UniProtKB/TrEMBL annotation, chain A:
Occurrences of domain Acyl-CoA dehydrogenase/oxidase N-terminal (ranges): 7-125
Domain Acyl-CoA dehydrogenase/oxidase C-terminal: 236-390
Cofactor: FAD
Family: Belongs to the acyl-CoA dehydrogenase family.
Acyl-CoA oxidase/dehydrogenase middle domain location: 129-223
Alphabetical list of InterPro entries matching this protein: Acyl-CoA_Oxase/DH_mid-dom, Acyl-CoA_Oxase/DH_mid-dom_sf, AcylCo_DH-like_C, AcylCo_DH/oxidase_C, AcylCoA_DH/ox_N, AcylCoA_DH/ox_N_sf, AcylCoA_DH/oxidase_NM_dom_sf, Mycobact_Acyl-CoA_DH
PANTHER family: ACYL-COA DEHYDROGENASE, ACYL-COA DEHYDROGENASE FADE34
Record bears the keyword Flavoprotein: yes
Keyword field: FAD, Flavoprotein, Oxidoreductase
Gene3D superfamilies: Acyl-CoA dehydrogenase/oxidase, N-terminal domain, Butyryl-CoA Dehydrogenase, subunit A, domain 2, Butyryl-CoA Dehydrogenase, subunit A, domain 3
Protein name as it appears in the record: Acyl-CoA dehydrogenase
Gene Ontology terms for molecular function: flavin adenine dinucleotide binding; oxidoreductase activity, acting on the CH-CH group of donors
TrEMBL record, chain B:
Gene3D superfamilies to which the protein is assigned, alphabetical: Acyl-CoA dehydrogenase/oxidase, N-terminal domain, Butyryl-CoA Dehydrogenase, subunit A, domain 2, Butyryl-CoA Dehydrogenase, subunit A, domain 3
InterPro entries for the chain: Acyl-CoA_Oxase/DH_mid-dom (IPR006091), Acyl-CoA_Oxase/DH_mid-dom_sf (IPR046373), AcylCo_DH-like_C (IPR036250), AcylCo_DH/oxidase_C (IPR009075), AcylCoA_DH/ox_N (IPR013786), AcylCoA_DH/ox_N_sf (IPR037069), AcylCoA_DH/oxidase_NM_dom_sf (IPR009100)
Entries under Pfam families matching the protein: Acyl-CoA_dh_1, Acyl-CoA_dh_M, Acyl-CoA_dh_N
CDD domains: ACAD
Annotated Acyl-CoA dehydrogenase/oxidase C-terminal domain residues: 227-366
Domain Acyl-CoA oxidase/dehydrogenase middle: 123-215
Reported cofactor(s): FAD
Keyword terms, alphabetized: FAD, Flavoprotein, Oxidoreductase
Protein name per its UniProtKB record: Acyl-CoA dehydrogenase
Record-stated family: Belongs to the acyl-CoA dehydrogenase family.
Domain Acyl-CoA dehydrogenase/oxidase N-terminal, residue spans: 6-117
GO molecular function, one term: flavin adenine dinucleotide binding
Species per Swiss-Prot/TrEMBL record: Mesobacillus persicus
Amino acid sequence: MDFSFSKKEEKFRSTLRSWLEENLPEGWLEGKNVITKENAEYWDFLRSWQKTLYEGGYAAIAWPEKYGGRNATLMEEIIYQQEMVRANAPQLINYVGIHMVGPTLIQIGTEEQKEKYIEKILTGEEVWCQGYSEPNAGSDLTAIQTSAVKNGDHWVINGQKVWTSFGHVADKCFLLARTSSSTEKKHKGITVFLVDMHQEGVETRPIIQMDGEHDFNEVYLNDAIASDADIIGEVDEGWKVMIALLMHERTGIGGQLFTLEQQFKDLVKMTNEVEEDGKPLIKDPFVRQKMVDLYTRSRGSLLNYYRNLTTTLKRGYPGAEGSMDKLLVSELTKEVFSYAVSLQNHQGVLWKEDALVDTYWQDKFLHSFGMTIGGGTSEVQKNTIAERILGLPKDLGR
Amino acid sequence: MDFSLSEEQEMFRRSIRKFFDQHGQTSIARDVVKGNTTSLDKVTRGLVELGCTGMTVSEEFEGSGLGSLDLVPVFEELGRALLPGTLLETIGFAIPILEKYGTDEQKQKYLPEIAAGTKKMTLAWLEPKKGYNPDSVGVTASAEGESLVINGVKSLIPDGDVVDTYILLVRTMDGKDGAGLSLVLLDREDTGITVRHQKCFDETQRLAEVTFENVRVSKSQVLGAMNQGWDVLQEGLLHLNGALCSLMVGGMDRIVEMTAEYATIRVQFGQPIGRFQAIKHGIVDMKTDLETARSLSYYANWALETDVDDKKAAIYSARAFITEAYIRIASQSIQIHGGIGVTEELDCQLYLKRARYYENYLGSVQQYREKTALALNW
Ligand SMILES: Cc1cc2nc3c(=O)[nH]c(=O)nc-3n(C[C@H](O)[C@H](O)[C@H](O)COP(=O)(O)OP(=O)(O)OC[C@H]3O[C@@H](n4cnc5c(N)ncnc54)[C@H](O)[C@@H]3O)c2cc1C
């Protein structure tokens, strides 16, 4: 058992840390988040942050050097996530491009596709979104109805996508469409298209979440056009592409766990600073009990992650344990913010500029509900854990 | 980064597992319930031969000088088999405090025999109708020349009627918050000791109430400094709780395994019950509890071995979480087994009772949470 990092890894960390100190937007490290989501320039700001990352060679460290990456090891990726959380770095606008589409293209894309997309994913010039979910297909993606029909030398796409994160700022979409439906196996007959969002047949409409923010969208496809060259993998074999893509998204959960660790520290600070009837919240015996419980389970989930990471490092590829990490971090994040609001007593209902402490707690509480739904719901994660780790029988209907 | 037990530690686990498989795992505890200790004695001797009792005794005193992490697989396997006895108190408590605070004479007297399996130790702390507050210690030891004279009653002493030596918490001076308490090594052959067996609902455990009447013991039997016993006890409890975490994880592991197995073979409404999500997700909740418990336990024992800053918080918080999780999953396993779950025949009940037995052993969940909060400087 050994929690230390190698010399090479420590070197990587310190180099990245100094790079961040020099390159983060002005005032960022002092906690002055120079720009907020309400600001119209927010998305441009994120694009320029990605450009900065690219110029420093830190946009996509896990990619092969040949494509502009650093061939980073899994441990270096973990360190990268830790340092980004530590510096509270701006959100990565092209998460889908960097962590999902890019590596998949590098693995199974054609030379032409690599030529066309890779560089622009790195620079942030082309932002990607993921077009999977539809009104009638969420947990069960085999139910997608968006269709692509071959017409002469191009494909005509019709249907509707929903919950498309970044859809309103994206230039490209990694889109699932049905290309044939006759087979008994429902996951056959799906094809992945690389679709241009800036075309007449694509219309994006905002969806406002309960926190008042706009992160995701509906995307309507009315005779949208794609060519053969825009297909990744084989026609009708999109499921394999999706699986390949999943294997590349290696450290996102780690990032969420490090974030939770930071958020919990913020909560401890809050309970020290906020007083009720002249006494800091953390001095209340009930608060102490509950806070230790949350502390313990957050530590536990992070330690689970390290244990699973060890397994992945030894085995060479990730397994179903990732579902447990995802389940735990998302459920716990919800609980931590729920408690943060509850702690503020009835003043917890105060919002925005009237918030008792900082509207951050109220906003994050509302925002946290998406975590146990997006990326596969908690119930679906439990099915995976049950079937793939515990060997329980598969659900009926699947 | 490597957060796993070493290959040697896992190998040692496999050999203990095999050894317990050969001796029928929980059937050893079941024999004890029936009053038959033949298999327990045999297995206990076998564990000594495998080196378990001497693992953490220093080489100078005929042990192997290994660390807390090496004990993890041992205690997990003991927990899985629900082995009765005081290996927890002997290995998890007596050895580390003897090593740290014992005089040369005390070490020489006890450690080689503990390693050889010929001395069994237990902890005598609680008193009738009292809690774990240091102020409630009422057993006294008054000085008379080079001796201490002990009077009072201790309750709920594990194996109190069969162990060789009590590590006894006594008051040697007036004081508050632990001041004036001492730990005394008291061999059971000393006269003036009356033992009353206490019935425990975890029938695999043997408990006794012990009355001390003018028991004379040499001052040289005080473990650590006189009147500072509370601090020695706290140090010992860190080790004991580290070991206890592993014991509980071992039990939890077996519960999850047997429940998942049952859910794949029991058929109702034409399908294995494990296909119903109420059952399936229930077992997943048990599994996540188990894995979280295991991670916390490994870390706690690593912290113990390497003496890192967050050692206390790691151990106390693990203890609190795992105690509750053990009860939770033991209870859930009964529900998932249906009618057979509530029978004496199935092991579910044995695990539930053991989980409950540990719940408030040497401190409650609430107390360990508060200790965690203090350790974190909250
Ligand atoms: C913040 C956020 C961002 C998202 N971003 C994107 C994006 O960028 N691109 C994209 O394509 N999608 C995105 N999604 C969509 C997300 O993938 C889906 O919401 C998710 O897969 C669930 O699908 P659904 O909403 O249709 O719910 P449903 O599948 O209808 O589920 C409804 C309820 O039924 C339960 N359920 C469903 N199937 C089972 C089962 N087999 N067993 C037990 N319970 C079951 C679910 O757990 C849930 O509680 C995002 C969602 C969120 C919240």
